[in-house]
Amino acid sequence: MKAIIFDKFGDSSVLKTSDITLPDLNNDEVTVAIAFTSVNPVDAKIRAGHLVEMLSHKLPIVPGWDVAGKVTAVGSAVSSFKVGDEVYAYARKAEVHDGTYAEFINLSESAVALKPSTLKLSAAAAIPLVGLTAHQSLFNTADLKKGETVFITAGAGGVGSLAIQFAKVQGATVITTASSKNHDYLKTLGADHTIDYTKGNVVESVRKIAPQGVDVVFDASGGDSLDEAWLTIKKGGRLVSIVQPPDENKARELGVQATFVFVEPSGAELKEIAQLIDAKKVKTPTINIRSVKEAAKAQDENEQRKTQGKVVLAIDF
Ligand SMILES: NC(=O)c1ccc[n+]([C@@H]2O[C@H](COP(=O)([O-])OP(=O)(O)OC[C@H]3O[C@@H](n4cnc5c(N)ncnc54)[C@H](OP(=O)(O)O)[C@@H]3O)[C@@H](O)[C@H]2O)c1
Questions:
Q1: 155 and 240, same structural domain?
Q2: Looking at the Swiss-Prot or TrEMBL record, what is one Pfam family this protein matches (predicted)?
Q3: pLDDT, tens only, 67-89
Q4: How many CB atoms within 10 Å of residue 288?
Q5: What is the pLDDT of residues 296-306, one digit of tens each?
Q6: Whose CA is nearest to atom 2 of ligand 1?
Q7: Which residue among 132, 221, 301, 312 has the greatest number of ligand 1 atoms within 8 angstroms of its CB, and so is best to mutate?
């Protein structure tokens, strides 16, 4: 099969098209013919070798962790899927090796779900990684409740686009940051309050809206944004960062429960997310579809941190 691969770490010039062999199918796996994948910031971080201490890697590596496509084979122990099913998945495995910028992938049944029936495969490919990240952070970790206020940094990105909507479905008030050009977009996602982080004082702006501090911070930005976000949270509040481990001393000082979340594959949660989408409670982010042959350019652009919503790659070698 054709795939984008890299056999050494580096900038986007290490990416190349190659013919590779699909590994044998295990009993508990399905083979998916990938129609679309999507670009996530982690793709470039892995390509550059930044995650070698955190995850096991085996070169050559096919990048990519999002997939939407059709099941073409099922292992003997698979009970939930049949050939022809249209599915989506977050395809991270124990070892970083066989990813989704490829024509096929074998995936554990437990990581896969039927795609939302109201979405095309192209839109479905934009959801798994960012959807699961937002879902696990807001609900499994921060336990966001109805009536609470959440401050979400980087609302216009892939993760932020889903996090804003999940928080609104839960009945929370959402405060979020983006540059002004993205504020209309944030409103279409349901954000109650939008703040331009490039102008003025973000902490003062949040405190004007929530004078006692917010109940939950969901940080999808890190760095200076996370430094500021600490100052917006109430004592006893919860902070989740998906970009860097939060400072434990600061958490103790401020009386805040602070956690780093690294998203886990879950077909069961993708099924819940599909139900929210099919019920029209959650919509897809803005999607820009490109060819997988433009993967290097798409990763370079994604590294600029200016993407509104998601860039989806069509598997059209
Ligand atoms: N731990 C995990 O499991 C996990 C999972 C998913 C993602 N992540 C990480 O989370 C981060 C976000 O991921 P993503 O997919 O949402 O990224 P993304 O889609 O590439 O984010 C781009 C967006 O970030 C916004 N942005 C950039 N700097 C900002 C700032 N200082 N304040 C507010 N907004 C800012 C931009 O809005 P403007 O154009 O308006 O500036 C743009 O819309 C990345 O670092 C990614 O690696 C971690």
A1: yes
A2: ADH_zinc_N_2
A3: 999 999 999 999 999 999 999 99
A4: 16
A5: 999 999 999 99
A6: 262
A7: 221
CA-proximal residue: ligand 1, atom 9 (nearest):
243
Which atom of ligand 1 is closest in space to residue 42's alpha carbon?
47
- Same domain for 81 and 144, yes or no, is no
Q: How distant, in Å, are the alpha carbons of 5, 14, 80, 119, 156 from that of 102?
A: 9, 16, 24, 21, 28
CB of 311 within 6 A of ligand 1: the answer is no
**Contact between residue 149 and residue 175 where contact means Cβ atoms under 8 Å apart:** yes
What is the average pLDDT across 203-213?
98
Q: What's the domain count of the chain?
A: 2
Length of the chain: 317
Per the structure, the complete domain to which residue 93 belongs is given by 2-127+285-314
Q: Are residues 119 and 139 in the same domain?
A: no
**How confident is the model over 113-121, as a mean pLDDT?**
98
In a domain, 38, yes or no: yes
C-beta of 40 in contact with ligand 1 (< 6 A)? yes
Report the distance separating Cα 189 and Cα 300, nearest Å.
Answer: 26
Q: pLDDT tens digits for 220-248? A: 999 999 999 999 999 999 999 999 999 99
Q: Is the CB of 179 under 6 A from ligand 1?
A: yes
Indicate the average pLDDT of the chain: 98
Beta-bridged to residue 291, according to DSSP, are 314
Is there an atom of ligand 1 within 6 Å of 87 CB?
A: no
What's the 221 CA to ligand 1 centre distance in angstroms? 5
Domain identity same for 102 and 205: no
Ligand 1 atom with minimal separation from the 302 CA: 20
Residues 10-32 as b or e (16 or more Cβ within 10 Å = b): eebebbeeeebeeeebeebbbbb
Spatial CA neighbour of 34 closest among 97, 86, 80, 110: 86
Q: Is the CB–ligand 1 distance for residue 41 below 6 Å?
A: yes
Same domain, 12 and 119: yes
Same domain, 123 and 134: no
